[in-house]
Amino acid sequence: MKNLPNILTGSRLVMALFMFVALAVAAGAVPFIGDRISVDSQLRLERWAFYAFVVASVTDFFDGWLARKLDAVSVWGAILDPIGDKILVCGALLGLMALGPNAMVVLPAGLILFREFTVSALREVGAGKGVKLPVTLLAKWKTTLQLVAIGAELILASWGAFNLPPEPAVMGGFTVVAHALLWIATLVTLITGAQYWEAARKALT
């Protein structure tokens, strides 16, 4: 039972990879495959990608909760968990951009990716010098906001795959909500990035 949290974390990595490949194939971005599948298959892949994203997002909560509940907190789990989060978020954002250009998604997606890679680099440099950058409460909320916002954007990008109402009023309202959530998540992401940068600067100097 004590291996269950790490199994969930590992499954998040697998599902994140599947989600990205499914979105890439659906977008026709995979040579020799993407341009040969039918429209129905593309829509099916978009649905599977979204379901994989949702399940992977849920494991992000349960692996940490189970690790504390079962007293199974481990170094391996502490390493894999943030890696799984970043792969899931980055894979979903790249998959979104593969599905089609969207001016309202490109900028926040780029800012989120920039922050994630920057903080990862800070952690790596800090670890080499014995400096730890603990996860803050706001950073945990940041991850939740990112997952909710990206999930909404995935639904919007795959609107036809879910047979959702095509009425402009419905789709337009959902578009506003999805984009607003993504920009809020981006703002919180940048704030936490600045906090980590300042913490690393103080610790390293």
Write the layout of secondary structure elements.
Layout: H1 4-26, H2 39-69, H3 75-99, H4 103-128, H5 137-157, H6 168-204
Helix pairs in contact: 1-2, 1-3, 2-3, 2-5, 3-4, 3-5, 4-6, 5-6
Radius of gyration: 18 Å
Instruction: Work out the helicity level.
Output: over 70%
Number of helices: 6
Number of domains: 1
Mean pLDDT: 87
The overall strand count is 0
- What profile does the largest beta sheet have? none
Distance between the termini: 43 Å
Q: What is the CATH level 1 assignment?
A: Mainly Alpha
In short:
The protein is mainly alpha-helical.
Describe the structure.
By secondary structure, the protein is mostly helical. The protein has a single domain, classed as Up-down Bundle (Four Helix Bundle (Hemerythrin (Met), subunit A)), CATH 1.20.120. Helices cover 80% and strands 0% of the residues. The radius of gyration is 18 Å and the shape is globular. The mean pLDDT is 87.
Keywords:
205 residues; mainly alpha; Four Helix Bundle (Hemerythrin (Met), subunit A); globular
